Amino acid sequence: MDIFSDMPEPVSLYIITYNDADNLRAVLPTVSWADEVVVADSFSTDDTVAVCAQFGVRHVNLKFEGFGKLRNDTLALLKHDWVVSIDSDERSTPEFADEVRRTLAAPQHAAYFVPRRNTFLGKPIRFCGWYPDYRQPQVFNRHRFRYRQDLVHEGFECDGRAGYFQNAIWQHPFPTFAVVLTKTQRYTALMAERNFAAGRRAGIRQLLFRPPAAFLKKYVFQQGFRDGTPGFLLSAQHGYYTFLKYARLWELQNRLPEPGGAANRPRP
User: Fold this and answer.
1) CATH 2.40.30.10 fits 11-173, yes or no
2) Mean pLDDT, rounded, for 140-150
């Protein structure tokens, strides 16, 4: 039975991805209920295009100039007013899809936050601040919602109040340590760029105190210890991420001049 057969509002669902064909193979079967599915890519070199063709979804290539701009550019390509945002490492559930149907039959808000249940290295995480783990609203009317043009961890602007869904989706952001390291490298580089452009600077205090504080926040105050070894590893990873974020910011602000020319970025 098509759970969207009696829904008055058609839904566009988009997924942003880059060289993540394996995750696409896993997420696309979970979102087949949407009226339109668009995969927003940035010129992947793996099997992304073939996977999209296999599942009969629309594939578009957009130049990556930051996650905020990428998401807004994708919204402009969608057919329907109501949008569901699912990342490639996330998974829809029948309960979430049914809540979308019921909510959009008579929407009370312009946008809705969606709770997410997370795994780390294949183990469910209940603490560490990872539930309900809201990011930006993931169900919204695109004419009343925009992402800020942030390079990473993009904010949003919403013309109206936001509500909250009850049924969670799943996210599997770090299935292996190889993925942990790859994502840490990418996101700390983007965060350093964003912070540098915003005029923030890093010194010995940030490098010395922020990483252990980040670990303690996850492991102690957000009770990561209750998740056992995975909770410890996740908390330690968060401390390392924080260290690398500030170390790379320090590197940007102290970049040496190129021979015979000016520095790529000025020192403060």
Assistant:
1) no
2) 96
